[in-house]
Prior knowledge:
Strand content: 25-35%
CATH topology: Immunoglobulin-like
Low-confidence stretches: 7-42
Distance between the termini: 45 Å
Largest sheet: 4 strands, antiparallel
Number of helices: 0
Radius of gyration: 20 Å
Number of strands: 9
Strand order of the largest sheet: 3-4-9-8
Shape: elongated
Structural class: mainly beta
Helix content: under 10%
Mean pLDDT: 76
Number of domains: 1
Order of helices and strands: EEEEEEEEE
Amino acid sequence: MTPSPFHGIFSSFGQDQSTQTSDALPVQAKGEPVQEAIAHPQGTQTGQIAVDIYELDAYYIIRAPIAGVKLSDIDIEVDDKVLTIRGARKANDDIATDQFYLQECFWGDFERSITLPISIDPKKVKATFSKDAILKVIIPKEEKVKIVRISEG
């Protein structure tokens, strides 16, 4: 298998790799929601979305299913090699916390930052959002300019 240009640069946002030893879901009692979120110093929580990243021809493509979100609730930011997807998933019904037996879906603000192996030109990034709530971000690979030194001789 060919090594990926992404090998080693992805880690779970906001999580320490050394503590990720089990794939088991935590068991919670009724009324104690299970939500993967990142606690910030301000006391707010930010959820994280799942992404698929793949290479196709001259592009890197990031695909993220984001159910329960409108296009107007999504923001994509580019800063050099880092692409950040932010948004908010809003629950339309008011259900009291003690009514849940299990709550795995994160409702509220979410954010996912992805470091790519190339610098990204924000003007060339394209994004689509399908009716099936799949966000697809298309990032062209830039050809690197080779520097040639000319010596006297």
